[in-house]
């Protein structure tokens, strides 16, 4: 497409050099399936591919079919649910299953695709050594926001586990490369640079092992053998003499020597090219780990340190300007606040242990830690407080007017109010003199994270999406106006109610001003297995991410005026009206006095809270389960189980019906659907969720509730009325006769799944009735059903999650 639009090779290479795409595995996998089940499903997929292989013999087909039945039989005999809630270490291993599997294999494939595309469209001589533009990150083992199980020791263990796993994979790759590069000095003159490298590794060669004797006249194999020994020696160490930089230097040397010796094709398209991409992508750390914590924790820890140092007795009670005055002074002051072994409150001790773990990791491998994310950022002090903690740990320091720091501090804006205020808050942060020095030390770069989950739970579907769109545009503007290089980090969940949907369409629908080639997106929950269970799926998913980001970047670079253009005032006003009407309807539903009781009676929320699928609690805090404390994932999960799927569409009917009453507005909405990618994605995602809903089944759940007057159907009726109104409105806007008329594949998939899923729902409803009938023991909490019913309920939740392809 870029070639057809007239972009030169230099233009395209420059665009690729700008790309920075970072999918991020998060710390709340909520993956209902065990690894044993995933392994068997992957094997079944491989056998299905074998059955479709052209040219397979009759015996090969018979063997594949027999193996397929064996795997299905074993799958049926395998427990689908874990016996115990997974530990954080279990979640780390689950993440590693994908990271050193399909993700590892995908990275060089996508890089190869880009090189081949350049050659195909710009000529064979166009092949260039393009930089790595796709890397992964992880929160698993380092996200401590709301998860007390993530300790500093767990983070240290995770970092070591990553290092050991990635270096083992590097050794495997090098062994294969050694098998390939059998070039003999009897046949080809050994380049001088290669001789020098071998001489520098003389201590390795001196061992005269059988390998060295075998490879005496095969210099590439001798060098690779030495590299393998270096990596194996460093694999179990937190740091070693053989670094990622040295490893890359040896790989680059082999590339240069091969090219200079007439083996350019081997160097560019052979296994060495794959290994160089793997080394540049994963290093010796595998993935950079982000640390996340709630702003409240930083305030408490900072208050404890300042009190212990005699600076102020009650820091938390101060006004924001007073806090900033103290924080600014202490960040400039080189002295530590407390001695190393000072006795501090538990929250401060835990925070300092976290920063100490980060400091040690950065010392061992600067690439192992990515950034520090502050949840619920509401003020400048919310960013300066963790900076002060980092200074106390030796990560951040200010000397001679210059800051030295190896990590970024990232604000996370989550609620509707926070998204609306994100831009002025960032301006205030940029204006702070100490933070300005920090930005200068980080190359004028700022990452900003946006939360898609709490904003939806807070304001409903339309308001959350509109608030996010406005916030992105405003943040792009404030960063550009301050000459700040920036990257938006999208905290998207798996479901549409938490920002999910097709990632490539979401990227193209973002405001023009944020298209700078840099983007991060979270990969959460069952989405990880949906997108990365097979190499082919991971390849396709990441290819779509790169394609969308590259295309959007090209468009923004080609037309800078368009890149800075905002939504016109009339369109913004229309969307604002729709969003507010939708939010009003949504809040009217969930704020009704009887709603929470109704919700907890008709959904398996209590069972979900006990489901052993994640180490993190479903509710913030340890008190009573309520709407405010409930996390967004179980909130969406519960609606999906009952087939309402409310977070992905509710409020649409009221809002669009009102908008369509005005003929001019109705026509504008039709035009938006055709011409405005953001609006089209909003409409299509909502109607996809409505198509997945099944209100006939949902009504059976609604009948589980009963007050003194009998069944209360008022909430169900409100939901049904909005659904029906939304279907009519969508028909008018899209011109379609029915929902998802544009998506035959998705519509047929839903129709195929429904009869099977309906049965699971009916079984779950019966199990909920039986559980509640037997839940009569004094002091029993809701969901404390007898073991056999509890286990069956877990199975029903697992089954419906698989059928709906969503845990939330």
Can you list the strand order of the major beta sheet? 1-2-3-4-7-8-9-10
Oligomeric grouping of the chains:
single chain
Strand content: 5-15%
Helix content: 55-70%
Tell me how many strands there are. 10
Reported for the largest beta sheet, the result is: 8 strands, parallel, barrel
Low-confidence stretches: none
- Termini separation comes to 36 Å
What is the average per-residue confidence, as pLDDT, rounded to a whole number?
89
**SS-based class:** alpha/beta
Shape: globular
- CA gyration radius, whole angstroms: 28 Å
Q: How many helices in DSSP terms?
A: 36
In a few lines, what is going on in this structure?
This protein has 808 residues and is an alpha/beta fold.
Structural commentary:
The protein has 808 residues and is of the alpha/beta class. The chain is built from 36 helices and ten strands. The strands form two sheets. The protein has an eight-stranded parallel barrel, surrounded by six helices. The two termini are 36 Å apart. The mean pLDDT is 89.
Question: How is the topology of this model organized?
Answer:
Elements: H1 9-18, E1 20-25, H2 35-51, H3 58-76, H4 88-122, E2 137-138, H5 152-180, H6 192-200, H7 202-205, H8 210-214, H9 219-234, H10 244-260, H11 264-269, H12 271-282, E3 288-294, H13 295-308, H14 320-332, H15 346-364, E4 369-375, H16 381-393, E5 397-399, E6 402-404, E7 408-413, H17 416-420, H18 422-431, H19 433-441, E8 445-451, H20 453-459, H21 461-481, E9 485-491, H22 503-508, E10 518-523, H23 526-532, H24 535-558, H25 560-563, H26 569-590, H27 595-602, H28 605-610, H29 632-641, H30 652-660, H31 663-675, H32 677-692, H33 695-702, H34 714-734, H35 744-774, H36 787-804
Parallel strand pairs: 1-2, 1-10, 2-3, 3-4, 4-7, 7-8, 8-9, 9-10
Antiparallel strand pairs: 5-6
